[in-house]
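Treating backbone geometry as a discrete language has practical consequences that deserve illustration. The amino acid sequence and the backbone structure tokens for this protein are reproduced below.
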Amino acid sequence: MASRTMIEPGWLTARRERAVSLRGSLPLPSFRGTPGWEFTSLKKLDLDAFEKPERIGAHVDVAALSVVGAPEGATRLEQVDHAFDGAADGDVAGDGTIVMPLSLAVQQHPQLVEQHFGTIVDGEDPFVARNEAAWEGGVFVYVPRGVTVDAPIVVSVVQSQGQTALSWRTLVVLEEGASAEVWEQYVSAEDDTDGLLNCVVELSVGQNARLRYVCAQGLSEKSWIFGTQRATVDRDGALDWIALGFGSGNGRVAMDTTLIGPGADAKVTGAYATHKRQHLDYATTQVHDAPNTTSDLAFRGILDGRSNTVWSGMIKVEPGAQQIDAFQESRNLLLTKTAHADSIPGLEILANDVRCTHAAAIAQIDLEQLFYLRSRGLRLEKAKRLVIEGFLEATVERFEQGFVREAIAGALERRLEYVLG
């Protein structure tokens, strides 16, 4: 592993200085006092207890920690704490594609990074400000106009040091007509790593570009996670966003998609599996800022033990954004009487030629289904397992046959095995 100490360009230094100022002035969200934070309390969060990670990352077997794996031929970038893989220093491929740590990109491609950095996520947020002040390493993916990247780009972020706050930054830019897949995963080196991960993700999908973005979270259940993830999709562009939430003990992740050009499309798929006393909070937004745009969001979760989850979703249609087709749904399966899920769909429609629908359901395992399966000779635990697998199969069926479908199915199966024991 390697680390870098560099002189940053002036524009980034100015941003960091502003972030430090905001960090000191912006209060943390208050439970039930800050909109969007009605279900996640920060009462037990002591930010002063988390130190900055040491620069020299531990030697860990990243492949063994992987949530979704990686297909053969994938481009890999790995970062452990604030040290990234020295073999992934990055370079410009023959077709102009760039995959490298963001800290290197600001040195080697300062104008290109400056053009996009912070344009989708601003710093007027206490967690974003902390991220912008402290991030190191990170990842920059740039795909030029008309270029197709055949193999996925797999980015692995490992937190190995307990009682540390790791700030992670992702910037993905696809120019007009480009196509790529970026798979990102956040994991802990050990099951008892008690850290905090604060991630900021910016995804820019250009005109007629295609991006599949997979974000899998498998942190220690003693960890906190806070995420601000936002995407923009331009004219005739398409975003396929997949989120898997398996780890961490507490926190909140915001996933916002804005369709800024006519013909833009976004498909967002989320799945989580929780147990014990885990608490996961997802807030999603689908903003239609241009006419003739479509979005389709579906979240599914299984909850065991005394775990609880929150999904709050908003479809927002801006004035003048006519001929919109938007859908969102959240479905949860409770495996115990002590598990709890909240699903809060929402619509804010400021145009009149639209079709916007939503659905939400929270239920326990259907006793009639169990009775039917047991009447066919299955034992109770096997029957429950089949019902749960059938519930999650709807998530897998959202993807075409191929490696991504196999990877998502495999990740869900492994997590289910872990949760059910």
User: Anything to note?
Assistant: The CA atoms of residues 114 and 257 lie 21 Å apart. The chain has eight helices and 19 strands.
